[in-house]
Amino acid sequence: MRMNAPVPPGEVELRPLSARSVVLSLLLGAHPPQLAVKDLVRAVEPFGIGGSTLRAALSRMTAAGDLRRTDGVYRLSDRLLERRRRQDEAVRPRTRAWDGDWETVVVTATGRGAAERADLRARLAELRLAELREGVWLRPANLSRPVPDDLEPVAQRFTARPEGAAAALAARLWPLDAWAATARALLAHLAVAHGPADRFTAFAAVVRHLLADPVLPAGLLPADWPGAALRAAYAEYRREIAGTLGR
Question: Which of 127, 164, 209, 238 has the fewest CB atoms inside 10 Å of its own CB, making it the most exposed?
Answer without folding.
Answer: 164
